[in-house]
Queue: 2 jobs
Job 1
Amino acid sequence: MAKMQGRASLFLWAASLVVFSFSCAVDVSAAECKRKTAGYYLEYMNPDGPARLAFSLQSLPTPLTGKPGDIVRGREVLIDRQRGDCLSCHKISAVTTVADQGGIGPALDGIGSRYSEGQLRQILVDAKVYFPDAIMPPYYKSDSSEPSILNAAEVEDLIAYLKTLK
Amino acid sequence: MRGNLGAALFQIAIGIFAAAVFTADGQPRRAFAPADPSNPLRYLIPGEEFLPPAIAAQQADDFDNPAFALVETGERAWAAPEGTLGRSCRSCHGSGNRNGVRQAAATYPKYVSGLKEVITLTSRINLCRKGNLGADVLAEDSTPMLGMTAYLRWLARGIPETVDNTGPAAELFERGRALYQTKQGLLQLSCAQCHHERFGQKFGGDALSQGHPVAYPAYKTDQQRVITLHERFRMCNTLVRGKGQPDGSDDYIALELFLNWRSRNLPITAPGVRP
């Protein structure tokens, strides 16, 4: 009897495993899968896995301030909870002073070699150009009537720092 | 023999209603089936499944749970006469069992026909204080109010959430549903984008849960005090760099109603413990 009970629960676990692995096996795009499973599958899609490399050619090659930013200040903007706060959502192994780094966006290790400067600027200003369903916040608004999270100089400083992550 | 068969059948039943889901590294998580097919979540995963195990254990143990002092405050207040009419809550409700008071905390926010309004548990407590005790109204986040809500929520521990979102409550419910999907704050993120689409992922040091309200009020370890559900809403508003609202605002009651419907079938686990 105990054995049967054991088998019954084993069966159940196996069944739920099967249901879970097949709920998205047959299909299609990640976005489709996300909608279907309402997030459960996301746990399997490692955000740190293969980089989501942007194929769009659109980029913003000219610095918003007309001159290059400062690497040291850029790192401060990135860490500062009131400004960039990038580490709530991203991991960067080069930053060892912040313990609790998030996993909502992809890790930014090596980001400087994955994207050109102009592409990084585009991602910070409006990531939706590359990732249409992006939740990566738009950090800079040139129109002064809209609230901007960062100012132009802070964006340029950030880009200078991101470029060092090779 | 029959006991064993019963146990096996019980396990199968649990298997149907409380399946296990698996994380990326194959760890099982407890999960419950939602009460309604229209629930956007396929499985309801209790908030404790996303906590460090030590904190979840602390919550489950009444002697270890720091919020329990507040439950005891509430229990004492329940039996203590107060106000001009010389009564205590116990005079009418007995020792927390009569008039359905044990289950009550699992059914709020609730429509009250006399008021033609959907009210929260705190408002219900104040109604009884004013009308039935002749006592003053307590602030939503005052210690005696937290004590009474913690006590009533603790009485309902283990009882599945059963809030009613139909009839006269439907309008407020739809408002809550809409708010849940509205992008908010400077970061322009909706509640759903974090708690529906990305639970299990890490936001800073916290693993995002599905954002169920069933453990509130809860002891917040980093602040060493008990917080209300509405204070948790304010904290989430701050995370997206938006503006919070005071406890008991219409928007927060609407959100509370929607969240409770969304967790219908999850057992109440208040008072919770959170990092």
Job 2
Amino acid sequence: MKKGVMRPGHIQLRVLDMEEALTHYRDLIGLIEMDRDEQGRVYLKAWSEIDKFSVVLREADEPGMDFFAFKCVDEASVDNLRAELIKYGCKVEDIPAGDLKDCGRRVRFDTPTGHKFELFANKEQTGKWGINSVNPEAWPEGLKGMKAVRFDHGLLYGPNIAGTTEIFTDILGFDLAEQVVNADEAGIANFLTCSCKAHDIAFIECPEPGKLHHASFLLETWDDVLRAADLISMRDVSIDIGPTRHGLTHGKTIYFFDPSGNRSEVFCGGDYHYPDHPTVIWQEEQLGKAIFYHDRVLNERFLTVLT
Amino acid sequence: MSQIITKHKIQVLNQEQEFLCPSGIALLVGMETINSHCIDVGCRGGGCGVCKIRVINGSFSSKRMSKAHITDEDLQKGVVLACRIFPTSDLKIEVLHTPTSKQVIV
Ligand code: FES
Ligand SMILES: [Fe+2]
């Protein structure tokens, strides 16, 4: 947080069919539908989030991720980071306030991995959904499906993750919390945090630019992860793998796909990272265990199926 | 009460395999149901492109497929994603080798 970047703010995902996508993000994962705009985009959030939305869905003829945004502490931080990004050589685009409903101006930049990221400082705060801000109850009634607590992080695939990681660490002030290194000590998977979480964003090296591996949502307990797995079977949803535990970050997890093929994760638990902590290293020979702690073998689909 | 489920014979020519796919079920899911592995399975949502096949003959209905993997030209040639087509007759197909994002760590 030393450069003013606080947390993931929103992710905009492309879907092939909006109503089908809503059965996934709203009815299965349990996000709240907050708004829609003239372009037909749908805005959602998880119940514990203060800001108005964290997931934006856009219907398109190719699924994947449009952009991933981080919220900064104030507009001055956005200005400073904007100047630093330009100086570093990133292509920077200014998106005016209101382009996303009830969101302030955003600064968009590109990265060597081919992903678009954004920084912003202002978005309407509607408060936790279904909970009073004074004397708040433990959780709101009326949540659907997996009852996701918050949008947590993303994992993206692309070329030159070293280049993108440098932007995140040197300019945006992220820490490299965990890393998988190959025999030459080069990072082939980088997990970055701007908070105390084990990761707010992660990258895995792959020749194809701009790819989404998954968008991840937090659940409270392991029992919630098992119930999420039950719902995936009950509703005949496309499963990827799990429930299991990761070696990397040690989170307890399950992966599945939305109706357009974008991968989702719900998880609970896992490690934490303070700025004085050294980077946790995994060696490539242990990649199976790093990714799936119980099976300890790589799963081809997990590594190669992307949108 | 009882409903007759039509099953369509799917011949996978370049894998020398065949299986029956009930109508209303996506071809890829039909294949998975009988525990065959002749077509690669990815997202099952028309997004990742790993299940690409060519339909040589037969009829089917389909759902939207990612333009990143299936162009209009592909469609003309019968190139489709097995997870997005629903056979409406017996089909002859071939599996197309799709180099998925081959990545450095595998
Ligand atoms: S399995 Fe992903 S497109 Fe068919
Ligand atoms: Fe994750």
